[in-house]
Please model this.
Amino acid sequence: MEVDLAARRLLARYCHLVDDRDFDAAADLFSDDARFRVLEQDFVGRPAIRAWLDTIPPSMFHHVTNVVVSNGSQVGTFHAVSDLTAGGQGDAGWSTWMLGRYHDTFVGQGRDMRFSQRIVTAR
Model:
């Protein structure tokens, strides 16, 4: 139960920080050597992930649902799969830009849990 809550907290925190454009704090949610794969592009290491965050358009929103957390394939890791809706405000108002899925691997526990791998796929 504690792992499930920690993973859900980390997922929500990431979305809030990115939507609020606090990219330094969002990058800190990743381990030093994390891998972030976004629609076929790989970013490895916290500095590369932080640089990618700067490319996110303003007025973005995330909505994450259907979170399923499980034990990882290696000792001390955990996995989660969740559905993603992302969108933002443009000239025509608010709209959905993408439906996708997060495939996450976490290390650490409680409030020290971090993303060690995050893969975003389109649906």
The two ends are 29 Å apart (CA to CA). The domain at 2-122 is CATH 3.10.450.50 (Nuclear Transport Factor 2; Chain: A,).
